[in-house]
Design a protein that fits this description.
The structure is a homodimer of 322-residue chains.
Chain A lengths: L1 E6 L2 H13 L4 E6 L5 E3 L2 E3 L1 H11 L16 H8 L11 H15 L4 H12 L4 E4 L6 E8 L2 E6 H7 L6 E7 L10 H7 L2 E4 L8 H5 L4 H6 L3 E4 L2 E2 L2 E2 L4 H7 L6 H8 L6 E4 L12 E4 L7 H29 L1
Helix pairs in contact in A: 1-2, 1-12, 2-5, 4-5
Chain lengths: 322, 322
């Protein structure tokens, strides 16, 4: 079976680990969000790609959910001793090496998709990880605080300001020109089912959906999403701040409507959100909290099972229509 | 008193520490060798400038003579885990931060002299450290081994091959176009005396002397050199391999002749080399082994004393000639 999954950072990566456990024989392609990529100290940092790669490759800091295990922070301290900004972004020494390799390869002319493949040669994540686009896009957030109304990089809003200053607008700079990376559309076309993990619906999944052609390709497939909202709150992270910025309620219902039909064919919600529904979408209620790897595998299995059932049903419907 | 000193790496830096101790009230300008600079992993590394800066700024690994004290090597290990080459150059984590800052500033358009000044803002070496040139020059070495005749970067010959393969030629690539960095010629013109420390006469001092205008400016000043060769062997390092490459004997006499007159006015040799001499040069014999900081200060004091005496004598001679 060929599965495509979109993915953001921590939540997506943990879900993918469950997906690998639930579908050990599947050929899994992950389309990773690059909207929160940032250049720091001249080095290109791709937080979501790295979180997926480290998590699936066994190099993640399990407690933190991002960055490397057994990490040290000598380089960061030294950069601060030189007065280099920014000092609010926590890069560890092991992580620095990844960004040095990536930047070296990008400067040598390799596209991000090939760089990511080269980095994964080391990590062997067990999935094919493709950035959503080789073109540079960056999520910026319009805020209005004591310094006035201005756009800041998503990471500055998310990490430095901890999304505490309300976002007036969230923009993917470069979205108009960005094309899907090589292999993205083909992987979707060849997929048996597509899964949307409980990643941030605005700045992770929503960002990927903005890349020309990706939404349209997904609409032709059987897509099952896992709600990132349980009982009116994000499973993890600060998705509520992002949803509020685009005028969407922090509910499993509102996120389903945001994705909409025909994009989504199936939607997994938590048991307390069992009333959620949308025309054309099959909604099922399941325990959705990823306490541990086993729970993540259970959720992934439920998503794949639903997708396979929907796909078979659509296949039969297609045959009957002939 | 205004002193200008040229400098290479370890030997030069230790001598300069002695010079600072011997002449605490002097205004010292150091013209640093950049011929052994190298770009590694996309980062610009200036080994000699950094050795001077770390040594005088209290950040040096005292035992090794180069690199940072309390150093760790996490980034290097991680780069090796990615298969990144070269793996023969030992960059520590603290040191990496220096190269990240330097590269960031160079990429932003600052010339190396301003970058060096910014780095020294942190280290406060007690001297004004200026690279010999803002223009990129790199020493390459022509060798002939089982892989055939070819030119390698000086660092590859020095560090990876440990200068064990004979050098057929030593070339400063970019020398023809390179101009002295801002402040270099002015510092020489305004100097009361100039000191050549016991740095490598070929790839450190010899490199600086190749930058257009520097030798000519020095010839107008009172210059005292400290022989890097004692009893037919380098005080430290592998200067013999470099001297052999350019057809010069490894003796205090041959190095004096290499520098020549009118460049050098005074020459300090070790007691066993007391017979050395050259027309127009005052040679004095002194203990020249830098066992410790005290010995380095003693040698520096002897060099400055000789230079001051020669300068006064030349001043009188100049007045008498009027």
């Amino acid at each position: 079976m060929r599965i495509v999954s979109l993915a953001g950072g921590i939540g997506g990566a943990r879900f993918l680990r469950g997906l690998l456990a639930a579908s050990p024989d599947a050929e899994i392609t992950v389309i990773g969000n690059t909207g929160d990529d940032i250049t720091l100290f001249g080095l290109r940092v791709c937080p979501d790609l790295d979180t997926v790669m480290y998590t699936l490759g066994g190099g993640i800091d399990e407690e933190q959910g991002w960055g490397r295990s057994d990490e040290t922070h000598v380089v960061k301290e030294e950069l601060a001793a030189y007065g280099m900004e920014p000092q609010w972004f926590g890069l560890g020494d092991r992580d620095f090496a990844t960004h040095i390799v990536r930047t070296r390869m990008l400067d040598a002319g390799y596209p991000l998709s090939q760089v990511t493949e080269a980095l994964c040669d080391r990590w062997k994540p067990g999935v094919r990880l493709i950035p959503m686009s080789d073109d540079r896009t960056e999520t910026h957030v319009v805020i209005n605080d004591e310094q006035g109304r201005r756009a800041v990089h998503f990471q500055e809003w998310w990490v430095r300001l901890r999304a505490a200053v309300p976002a007036e607008q969230i923009l993917l700079v470069g979205a108009d020109e960005a094309r899907p990376a090589p292999g993205v559309l083909q992987a979707i076309d060849e997929a048996d089912v597509v899964i949307l993990p409980p990643s941030n619906p605005v700045v992770s999944i929503g960002t990927i959906l903005q890349i020309k052609g990706i939404r349209e390709a997904l609409e032709r497939k059987t897509v099952v999403g896992v709600s990132p909202i349980v009982g009116g709150a994000p499973v993890r992270g600060m998705a509520d701040a992002c949803l509020t910025a685009i005028g969407v309620d922090t509910t499993a219902q509102a996120v389903l409507e945001l994705y909409g039909s025909p994009l989504v064919d199936g939607w997994l919600v938590a048991e307390q959100d069992a009333g959620v529904g949308l025309d054309g979408v099959v909604v099922e209620a399941r325990p959705l909290i990823m306490h541990d790897a086993g729970a993540a595998a259970g959720i992934a299995r439920a998503a794949v099972d639903l997708a396979v059932r929907l796909s078979e049903r659509q296949g039969r419907a297609g045959e009957e229509a002939r």
